[in-house]
């Protein structure tokens, strides 16, 4: 393949730095097997059954929670879900850090809550992860992206297709995208 002109050096990436998996490798492997059969499937298993499983893996889950089919939860032991929460089909909760979902929250279909990131300013691209908090009463519209370190405020609606990379205040209806910008990666 030859010599690269890029400054990026992914072979220097160290997956053991910057990510606390929060559990044993054996538990993580077991979770993946369980997740494939009971969460990533299109079979509509009862919510009470899925919640029972999540709690056995360390998740804190309130009452009246609805988890639709094909929901991908990365680390249940880093997940807190309040009361009367709806999680739609094909939602992906990539919670490398704590993910806290308040009461009466709706996360619509195909939304991606991504607590993982990499430091693009370092040639080895080390992890730069962060927690995500969804406050009471908020609604994440379909096909939204919520990035690491973000808090969505009380009763705030993030409209369909939004990309949220910064904290959003309370009681807003917003379609959020990062500012349009272009800058040099390397100085």
Major sheet: order of its strands? Answer: 2-5-8-11-14-16
| Corresponding CATH superfamily | Hexapeptide repeat proteins
Q: In this structure, how is the largest beta sheet organized?
A: 6 strands, parallel
Please write the CATH class name: Mainly Beta
Number of strands: 16
Overall radius of gyration: 18 Å
Query: Counting H and I runs of at least 4 residues, what is the number of helices?
Result: 2
- Low-confidence region ranges: none
Reported by name, the CATH topology is: UDP N-Acetylglucosamine Acyltransferase, domain 1
Identify the overall geometry: globular
Please state roughly what percent of the residues sit in beta strands, choosing from under 5%, 5-15%, 15-25%, 25-35%, 35-45% or over 45%. Answer: 15-25%
Q: What is the terminal separation in angstroms?
A: 27 Å
Mean pLDDT across all residues, rounded? Answer: 93
Binned, the helix content reads: 10-25%
Number of separate structural domains? 1
Helix/strand-derived class?
Answer: alpha/beta
* CATH-derived architecture: 3 Solenoid
Order of helices and strands: HHEEEEEEEEEEEEEEEE
